[in-house]
Design brief:
This protein has 93 residues and is mostly helical. 75% of the residues lie in helices and 0% in strands. It is elongated and about 70 Å long.
């Protein structure tokens, strides 16, 4: 016969579960606040004449390591050449 958990172990597990959920909820709130702040920065940049699509692309590129970026650029150039497209992005590195 399986041993039934005691009331104290149930309450400890419930308290732990509640604490995890509350921590996650706080982090989700902080994540939303940060996302809102980032939106405001993009809006400010746009108001100053910057193209936000390009800014987002630069942010994404800067997250990549050099080798990954070089590989993607090489593939892009290859695909563009295969399609007969001119003006493949220049390699600035």
């Amino acid at each position: 016969m399986a041993k039934q958990p005691t009331v104290s172990s149930d309450s400890v597990a419930q308290d732990q579960l509640r604490a995890f959920i509350e921590r996650i909820e706080r982090m989700e709130e902080e994540k939303k606040a940060i996302a809102d702040d980032i939106k405001e920065i993009y809006a400010e940049a746009k108001g100053n004449g910057f193209d936000t699509k390009v800014l987002r692309q630069i942010v994404r590129i800067r997250k990549q390591d050099h080798a990954e970026r070089m590989e993607q650029e090489a593939l892009l150039e290859l695909y563009m050449a295969a399609l007969g497209m001119q003006g493949a992005p220049a390699n600035d590195d």
